[in-house]
Amino acid sequence: MRKLSLVAVAAAAFIAAPAMAQDATAPAPADTTTTTTQTTGATAPDGSKAFGIEPYVGVMGGWEQFENRADHGIPQARNANGSIRNNYRPAGALAQAVVGFNVPLGPVFVGAEGNVAKGVSGNIDWEYGAAGRFGARAGDSGLIYGKVGYQWVRFDHFAGESTAGTGRDYHAITYGIGVEVGPKDIGLKGLTGNAGFRIRAEMNTFGDFHSMRPMLGVITHF
Fold it and tell me: Tell me, what's the pLDDT at 53?
């Protein structure tokens, strides 16, 4: 009986030893977070891709008010006798279309866009231009940015003369700042995620602060 007991113990030890050795030498479970990051690539704080290209289009509306004094940006319009033309308004409401692209670079982004605008009141006829944008990403799909570019302005009839142009056409460097917000509730997820809408609000100026141009609109990317 004692011999049988020893044989049973030896057999159990023989069977258990390989299993224990396998458990001792088995590698630890992989860090799923690291594996996922290596598999899918870097992500931005909002969970979308950190790098890519986001083309977009948009429509905006707003108002532009040019300085209405002589030798400062858009000059005062004058009558034939030299008196100021009081019914001339170098200001008015604008309807604008924009098209451009963003290049997200982790928590920041750069991009460029073009615009064309039509005056719907006052004496501004057409505007068009291009600008570069740069800024930071905020929240799920938000952007905070600055922009600089060049803008051309055409009035609906003769305005006068200045160093920025003559007659109806004027041009100068333009600067601006703005924000865009796009909650996930309307289908947007990051700059490089699902297509959706962002609301944009921005303020621009023409030349050496010769105008103020607040604008509000909707941007959609694809």
Answer: 86
- The residues near 199 (Cβ < 8 Å, ≥ 6 apart) are 180, 181, 182, 216, 217, 218, 219
CATH fold, domain 54-221, is: Porin (2.40.160)
pTM recorded for the entire structure: 0.70
* 2 contacts: CB under 8 Å, gap ≥ 6: none
Nearest Cα to Cα of residue 172 among 155, 149, 156, 154 = 149
Separation of alpha carbons 174 and 129, rounded Å = 9
Instruction: Measure the CA–CA gap between 117 and 154, rounded to whole angstroms.
Output: 10
Contact 55, 220 (CB under 8 A): no
**Residue for token pair 């333009």:** 174
